Amino acid sequence: MEKITVEAVLENLQTVIDFATERLEARDCSMKTVMQTELVVEEIFVNIANYAYQPEFGEATFCIEFEENALLMTFIDSGKPYNPLEQKAPDTTLALEERDIGGLGIFLVKKNVDEISYEYSDGKNILRMKKFF
Asked: What is the tens place of the pLDDT at every residue in 23-50?
């Protein structure tokens, strides 16, 4: 397993995305897998940066590891307890101007990974995702 820990601020988003992308490309993952993973990393990291510690600042850790046919990703932060899996799915049948704000990011994450779980343990939010390739 490899990991990176950065201050959870938007300025560090590209650093985390690059960290993930470099590891995927080193494994010769398909462009589709790379793009889907970049989307997942962006959505989760942005949520941590925008909401986990506000108005304070804190760190986010992103872990990545590979199994024979799967990518395992974990985000860990010590921010406010928050289970994104409890977020109500947006009604995508409504026109954009009729939809409630929020919820689309985690909806997209769920659509781009095969397994996802959340736990709050020892003062940490831990979001684990598995993507088969």
From this structure: 999 999 999 999 999 999 999 999 999 9
Q: How far is Cα 83 from Cα 89, in angstroms, rounded to an integer?
A: 13
For residue 128, the surrounding DSSP H or E stretch is strand 124-132
Kindly calculate the radius of gyration of the chain based on its CA atoms and give it in whole angstroms. Answer: 15
CB-CB neighbours of 119 under 10 Å: 11
**Which CATH number belongs to the domain containing residue 86 in this structure?**
3.30.565.10
Question: Assign residue 85 a region: left if phi > 0, alpha if psi is -120 to 50, beta otherwise?
Answer: alpha
Enclosing domain of residue 68: 2-132
Full-model pTM:
0.90
| Total domain count, the chain | 1
